[in-house]
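Entry 14. Structure prediction run on the chain below.
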Amino acid sequence: MAGLDLSHGELADKLRHLDEPTLRRVAKVAAELGLELRPVDDPSVASGLEVLRGRQPRASVRDKLQRYAEELDRAQWELEEQLDAYGEGPAEEEQAAAYERARAAQTVWAALDNDPVTAALDSLYELTGVIGDEPDVLQRLVETVVSGERDPIGQTLATLRERRANAESADQRERFLGPDGTVPGLDSGLVAKQHEGAWPVM
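Output returned:
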């Protein structure tokens, strides 16, 4: 059972009913999107993309890419151990970035699998490590590829940017507002008078 079966079972079932050319397109787009979000500068990754795009023979590209992806994973595990030892701080952001780079490289490795179903399932699963818990975004990405819509990567990037901007705005509001929607530290009696209309709302 693939990882996508556990995290996105319904989507995995739909993918198993697609033909091989469509599955290959899904895998390629997943790999390209992963690297668009978290670029990885390595010859083996670049070669893997060229293979997916049909510009280079497969040869031993996947083996080299696997070795490099494993190096990235080891690096992020070491950073995770440091994070466990020292707590939050700069190491947390560094570890998160390292984890996403490893996942982005793995999207390419997975997309190169000889079996088209496995390639699509595993590349999308690795992509979730880059985009986060966004099941509807993943679903929409597959739909755009299957339907032949233009620029599925651009559409997905626009959606993710909008969501992250909204999340940041909500985060900023929460810093100033308490759980009841009032400004912490402001006298509750004054706030009550304002709500009653005794004081003008500024």
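The CA atoms of residues 35 and 178 lie 39 Å apart.
Filed with the rest of this week's runs.
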